Amino acid sequence: MILGNFCIGFVIYWFVTWFPSYLVDDRGFDLLQVGIFGAMPALVAIPTGWLGGLVADRLVSRGTSLTTARKVCIVGGLHVSLVAVLTLVTPSAILAVALLSLSYGSLTFANASVWSLPTDLAPPPGHNASLAGLMNFAGNAAGVAVSTSVGALLALTGGSYVLPVLTAFGFALLGALIYLFVIRRVAPLEAKSTPQTPVAPAS
After folding, report:
1. Are 160 and 87 in contact (CB under 8 A)?
2. Which of 146, 147, 148, 162 is deepest in the core (most CB within 10 A)?
């Protein structure tokens, strides 16, 4: 869960930190165009995040196992997000924005089930917040990593976004593989009991 959330966080924070710069530097948008078109991925992400939760709930209510429901939504969403790589070969700026909007929406679709995992997997009782906190730490660490690494790649390649885009969505693919193969079963984990130190009786 920690590794998977680092991967999906890396891609989401790419949009948060570098998407406006991409529009200006790679697509030649001015500030007004960035204000208009830069909002498109976020506007798409609002309904797709809700849709991701709805689809997962519907799958479970129709008898699909929790493991299958979560993996279909997470792995499927992460795979669809890879359409962003097609921006590297399309000359159309509008089509690039549309592809990136679909990509970001797919990430939030997946994220609805990602953030259900702490509740699904937490050993009873009272470990949900601990698991969610560990996941959140990984996601924010990814924000630090993408902020610095993309800047370094841009400097290394003279401002080309080819390597940054491939790197970011390489993490999306890695995340899909982690959620598919590393998390084998979505069910509550067993809490390991710790030996209690005997307390000496009061004298």
Report:
1. no
2. 146
